[in-house]
């Protein structure tokens, strides 16, 4: 007996831990939303390209577009142009679109449009980088100034991260004579980044320029320069103005390197204007779109991977254990008497179509009339099988009659009575009549009321939209329910209704 108890405890612990672990993995690692009403940001980015084409020359425009290999995934990407050929190529970790035309004249306008969202999958794409680089050749006073700046940088740094941060801070100290010499009167951010790159190359620390777009709606945008370096395991991002480490979450990496955003052959006065707007979409729908537009399959092996019609069926099926749990608690802990465990649950499922109030009325009418017929058939001394056959046929005729009269009276809700399980109603009538004969009318009425109450409560709980979504999205929660049901299977304590019985018993002793 002791070994059996230990075995049951281990089984319950395994089921509960497994259910919690899978559910937490879906929520915290895969990022699946906990509520159906949760929404996530959807960004629409337009890059407007304007230039003046030379009338006698072929036109070729090249522009960097986001690689989308870090924290974002593209849901839609389009290149809008008139009479231009379009191709997209990858070079040195970047993506570049090329528009080309044999002839063009005058002012030209092209558009690049991107719809993106945060990457849902917990697995981020990691791109490795170099950990060593050769020194940039520098001679004369510039070399002396660079070495003079490097000495305190080495002294005040402990690793790659602090070395780069210190180098950026020293470069932004415009009162330093060595910095003035290296900047040569050009204190722009791009030139400062070039000086930082020079200093780091002498120390053989690789660094590259990163051009980003800030995800802020309805504000003029221009690419923002950042620096990054690979420390052997992760990319470290730095603000070239302050040395602050860490790329903000609202930055979209557009391209890397020293090249300009756009190059135009056969044209002049090129200008790129960015405009962004933000919208919200249902989180689980957005997760599905993310799944479809990437190689991720974190929803493919969930119930959302089933056909839509099958999903609707499973949304009902996964709630049956919830209804069973309600009946189990009502019977084993509270002591409510019902006609078995599954009969109230099946009646609760029928209430989904008839609605609760109308369903209770229909159930009461059909059961009362069926009991009357069962009582009449008892006087005929029929065997059980023929008696059940007659009751079943009577239930079908009664359902048809109620549906017909409801239609004539304009009560369309009454048509749903046909969805009541006829076999369940027949067996309910039969079992209630047997209970009536064996234990009296009062007990039969008590069981009928208990069954109807349990079915109503189960229906109310099984119809909560938030609960349906949660169980359907995280079905591993059912393992936790199984663990609780197993624990309830060994419960031998008092039920709440027994307190009333024993209270009267105690009064009799006094």
From TrEMBL:
| Membrane-spanning ranges | 6-28, 314-334, 354-373, 385-407, 413-432, 444-461, 467-487
Residue limits of the 7 transmembrane helices usually fused to an inactive transglutaminase domain? 260-505
Name the UniProt record assigns to this protein: Inactive transglutaminase fused to 7 transmembrane helices
Q: Please provide the record's keywords in A-Z order.
A: Membrane, Transmembrane, Transmembrane helix
Concerning Pfam families, the annotation shows: 7TM_transglut, Transglut_i_TM
Output the InterPro entries linked to this UniProt entry. 7TM_transglut, Transglut_i_TM
What is the species of this protein?
Answer: Pseudomonas poae
Domain Inactive transglutaminase fused to 7 transmembrane helices: residue ranges: 25-184
């Amino acid at each position: 007996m002791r070994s059996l108890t230990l075995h049951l405890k281990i089984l319950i612990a395994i089921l509960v831990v497994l259910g919690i672990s899978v559910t937490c993995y879906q929520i915290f690692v895969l990022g699946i939303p906990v509520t159906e009403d949760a929404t996530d940001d959807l960004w629409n980015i337009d890059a407007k390209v304007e230039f003046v084409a030379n009338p006698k020359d072929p036109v070729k425009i090249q522009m960097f577009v986001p690689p989308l290999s870090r924290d974002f995934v593209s849901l839609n990407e389009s290149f809008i142009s008139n009479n231009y050929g379009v191709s997209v190529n990858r070079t040195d970790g970047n993506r570049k679109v090329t528009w080309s035309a044999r002839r063009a004249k005058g002012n030209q306008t092209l558009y690049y449009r991107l719809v993106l969202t945060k990457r849902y999958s917990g697995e981020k794409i990691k791109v490795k980088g170099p950990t060593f680089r050769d020194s940039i050749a520098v001679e004369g006073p510039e070399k002396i100034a660079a070495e003079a700046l490097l000495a305190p940088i080495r002294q005040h740094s402990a690793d790659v991260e602090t070395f780069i941060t210190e180098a950026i801070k020293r470069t932004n100290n415009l009162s330093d004579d060595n910095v003035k010499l290296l900047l040569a009167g050009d204190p722009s951010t791009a030139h400062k980044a070039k000086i930082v790159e020079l200093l780091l190359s002498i120390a053989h620390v690789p660094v590259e320029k990163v051009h980003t777009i800030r995800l802020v709606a309805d504000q003029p945008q221009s690419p923002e320069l950042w620096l990054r370096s690979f420390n052997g395991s992760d990319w470290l991002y730095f603000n070239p103005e302050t040395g602050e480490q860490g790329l903000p979450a609202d930055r979209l990496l557009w391209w890397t390197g020293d090249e300009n955003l756009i190059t135009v052959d056969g044209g002049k006065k090129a200008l790129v204007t960015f405009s962004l707007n933000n919208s919200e979409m249902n989180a689980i729908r957005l997760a599905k779109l993310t799944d479809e537009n990437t190689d991720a399959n974190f929803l493919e092996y969930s119930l959302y991977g089933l056909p839509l019609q099958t999903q609707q069926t499973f949304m009902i099926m996964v709630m049956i254990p919830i209804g069973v749990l309600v009946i189990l608690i009502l019977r084993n802990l509270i002591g409510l008497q019902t006609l078995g465990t599954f009969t109230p649950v099946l009646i609760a499922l029928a209430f989904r179509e008839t609605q609760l109030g109308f369903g209770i009325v229909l159930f009461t009418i059909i059961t009362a009339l069926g009991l009357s017929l069962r009582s009449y058939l008892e006087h005929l001394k029929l065997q059980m099988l023929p008696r059940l056959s007659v009751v079943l046929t009577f239930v079908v005729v009664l359902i048809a009659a109620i549906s017909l009269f409801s239609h004539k009276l304009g009560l369309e809700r009454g048509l749903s009575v046909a969805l009541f399980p006829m076999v369940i109603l027949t067996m309910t009538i039969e079992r209630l009549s047997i209970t009536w004969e064996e234990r009296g009318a009062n007990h039969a009425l008590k069981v009928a009321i208990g069954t109807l109450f349990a079915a109503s409560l189960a229906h109310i709980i099984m119809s909560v939209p938030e609960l349906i979504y949660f169980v359907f999205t995280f079905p591993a929660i059912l393992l936790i329910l199984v663990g609780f049901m197993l624990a309830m299977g060994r419960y031998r304590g008092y039920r709440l209704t027994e307190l009333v019985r024993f209270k009267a018993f105690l009064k009799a002793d006094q």
